[in-house]
Specification:
Length: 203
């Protein structure tokens, strides 16, 4: 079995990655670019977005008039398996979306669909490859790991599995078959350490 398939980020690694994305040292990009990258990572870590879904998101799926939506709906046309799903949005993701509107979206004026994540114009979304480069580079610099966007989604699923039922995780991840969700039942390194530590005699 390929062990890397089951690799996840620890809570500490998630914090370091997100902090680096927000405030990368010696990076000449503008603060709003850093915030865009941070928000993209949050959508994978806190909402389980696939990178292919992320780049297809429109501003009107995240922002409604004066505030963020309380939940994100991945539409059938955006989902990998054409299975629509709705995921509640965390408080920190909601705050990030508010800042995206302030720093990016409020100046966009076009009748065409406006993508949420772009470089220069909202009609031209970032590519999968661009997002992969952003996440991989941040991973190497912040935690010394060669990571990819799907690892963030996998971390989301694994963490969620410790808090709720497999059926809920299945719905949040947008899996048609429960068998696809079962890979998230694997124990993490932290789970194994806790199990072994529990064998230590009490003093």
């Amino acid at each position: 079995m390929n062990r890397s398939r089951f690799a996840t980020l620890t809570a500490d690694e998630c914090d370091k990655l997100l902090c680096h994305l927000q405030h990368p040292p010696n990076n000449k990009a503008t603060p709003r670019v850093h915030h865009r990258n941070y928000t993209m990572a949050l959508l994978m870590l806190d909402a389980g977005c696939r990178v292919g879904e992320l780049i297809k998101l429109r501003q009107d799926q995240l922002w409604f008039t004066h505030s963020p939506f309380g939940a994100l709906t991945i539409e059938k046309e955006q989902a990998k398996n054409k299975h629509e799903r709705t995921i509640p949005i965390t408080n920190r993701l909601s705050s990030a979306i508010k800042n995206m509107h302030h720093q990016w979206w409020k100046t966009d004026h076009t009748n065409e669909p406006r993508y949420a994540f772009y470089a220069n114009h909202c009609q031209y979304a970032l590519t999968v490859r661009q997002v992969q480069r952003i996440i991989t580079s941040a991973g190497k610099l912040s935690i010394g790991r060669d990571i990819h966007p799907h690892l963030l989604r996998h971390t989301f699923g694994t963490r969620l599995m410790t808090k709720t039922s497999m059926r809920v995780v299945q719905e949040c991840l947008g899996h048609k078959n429960l068998s696809s969700t079962q890979i998230y039942t694997h124990p993490s390194g932290e789970d194994l350490k806790k199990a072994i530590d529990s064998l230590e005699p009490k003093e």
